Amino acid sequence: MAKEIRTEHFPLILHKTHSLRLRSKLEGPAWEDCQYVYNMLKQSPLGHAISKHVTIYPELLQEFWWNEETVYSGTNMWIQSQVMGFTIILNEETLRDALRLGDDPDTTFFPREILEETLKDIGYRTPNVLRQISMSGFIQPFQYLVTQLSVCFSKKIGHFIELSYKMMEVVHVVVQEKPYNFSKFLMRNLKSNMHTRQPF
Q: 33, 36, 106, 154: which could form a disulfide with 150 (CB 3.0–4.6 Å)?
C-alpha cells in the first residue's frame, strides 16, 4: 500500500522554482561593496551549484522524500527512493556530478581554531562565541557571502540570524580557497534531516 503524502512534512511545497539561487541583481553602494564577493563565489567550486536555475516539481519532491530509504554499506551511505516507478539513488558521487562540485574527498573537517582565524581575517567583530556565530558580526560584503551560502546550503528553514561552525567551514573554504568535500557535507545534512522529514 502506498504511503499517504502529507504536505505539512514538506515546507518546499509552495516553491514552484528553485529560489535559493545566488542573488546578483542588487543595486546601490552596498552592492558595489559586495561585487568582489559575488565574483569570488562565482569562481569557487560552488559557482554552478549556487547559480543554476532549477525547476522544482513539488509532487515529485514529495514522492522522493516519502519513499526514501537510507542504505549503508561499510562507511558509505546513500539515499534510495522510488519516484514514478523509477529507482533514484542519491549519494556523494551523484551530488558531485549534478552540482559540478570541485571536491577534495580527503578534506571533510577544519579545527575551530582555523575557522576563528578566518573570522578574524574577514573582520568578524565578535569572535568570542561559544557555539554560534552571529550574522550581525560580519561587515557588509561578508554578510552577503555568509547569507548566500547559508540560504543555499544550510539545513535551516527560515531566518538566518546565526551561523554554525559547520557552516563556517564552507565560508572558510570559499574565502581561503581551500579544498573541501562539499558532497560529504551535503550528504551529512541530508542524513540528519531523515527523521524530521524536512527536505534539504
A: 154
